[in-house]
Amino acid sequence: MVAASLAGALALGAAAPTPALALTSATVPVVAVAASVAQPSGDARISTAFALPGAKVYPEGIAADPRTHTVYVGSYTDGTIYRTRPGRAEAEVFLPSGTDGRRTANGLRVDARGRLWVTDSTAGVSVYDTATGRRLAHFEVAAGSARFVNDLTLTPDGTAYLTDSSRGVIYRVTPRQLAVGSGVLTEAYDLTPSMRPRPAGSYSLNGITSDRAGRYLLTVDMTAGDLYRIDLRTGAVRRVALTGGDMKAADGLDLAPDGTLRVAHNASNTLTRWQVCADGTRARLTRTITDPSLQIPTTLARVPGRTLVVRSQFDKGGPLDPDGTGTPTAFTVASVRGF
User: What count of Cα atoms within 13 Å lies in the side-chain half-sphere of residue 285?
Assistant: First the structure.
């Protein structure tokens, strides 16, 4: 999800946001966006999938339940989790702001058993029963370290992997740990030795996804524009060879079984589509859509026949608006067909 992508953007701190906390621009760098990504949307059709109730939603994460086709969306600014059932034009509140003390929501995923995983950038991750809304488990970052727990992915064996945009590491929660129900997030991979040097105070890892066979993870360094592959058998980390473009300002990632990787680039109102080779070591840009109606897209979810894209509007009075003077329109999730 978004982590430092526009001038005067999101302040990343160790303390959880509260309703009275001002989101300032003091510590946030600029992420340059290559002009080459700006292309027309072509034959892609962008419309509104559903609306989110509330005047200050500023959504960030999205997840679709493959069993029920219910879609969940999280608010960055207050942690509310919204739920939309198939065919509905407006979402409803599933988990209110402040549930279990959580005041922000970043990455969302629904696992094979219908449990909803929600990251809290300042604390860790919680797991909820989608039938009852009851929290089943929670895992926290070790105290005393700067952190920004961002996005997550789930592999076929039920293991969750989570990015930390501040530290450049990936955490892991195994099924055994999930059964215990709580604990400190385990650091699984440190990518900093493999990453390009970054400006002081900038942030790195953002979106993360995994192949359906459980062989590797893909995660993006949104400041440098690089994509990394982590081998889940050996732990080897390597930079993916990108052809045709880069991944600057890349936020949410979605990897389909056929190797199609869809990417949301927040700062440039851009979506890109890549073809990843069979072993995940190379990716070729095949499609670029840039459209202001995407309204700072933070992440996406693929559902039958279309891609759902979060319209965060972070630049309209939200965490990417340094003056706080912008006025958002109604908060919605976009439907993109032909992508």
Answer: 16
| DSSP letters for 4-39 | S-STT-PPP-SSPP-TT----STT-------GGG--
Q: What is the pLDDT of residue 146?
A: 73
State how far the alpha carbon of 166 is from the alpha carbons of 111, 163, 276, in Å: 26, 9, 27
φ, ψ of residue 143 in degrees (nearest 5)? -65, 150
Tokens representing 258? 């056929």
Burial class (CB in 10 A: 0-12, 13-18, 19+), 296: buried
> Once rounded to an integer, what is the mean pLDDT over residues 67-91?
96
C-alpha dist (Å) from residue 322 to 20, 25, 326: 16, 6, 9
Tell me if residue 294 falls in helix, strand or coil: helix
Please identify which residue in the block is written with the tokens 């501040």: 166
Concatenated DSSP letters for 109-156? EE-TTSEEEEEETTTEEEEEETTT--EEEEEEPPTTS---EEEEEE-T
Instruction: Please name which of 238, 249, 229, 221 lies closest in space to residue 164, comparing C-alpha atoms.
Output: 221
pLDDT above 80: residue 200: no
- Does the pTM surpass 0.85? The reply is yes
In which order are the strands placed within the sheet that holds 182-184? Answer: 108-110, 115-120, 124-129, 135-140, 182-184
pLDDT for position 239 = 98
Q: Point out which residues pair with 271 in neighbouring strands.
A: 264, 289
**245 alpha carbon, distance to own chain's centre:** 20
Q: How is residue 175 annotated by DSSP?
A: H
The secondary structure of residue 247, as a DSSP letter, is -
Q: Which residue has the tokens 């207050």?
A: 78
Please report, rounded to a whole number, the percentage of residues in the chain having pLDDT higher than 70: 87
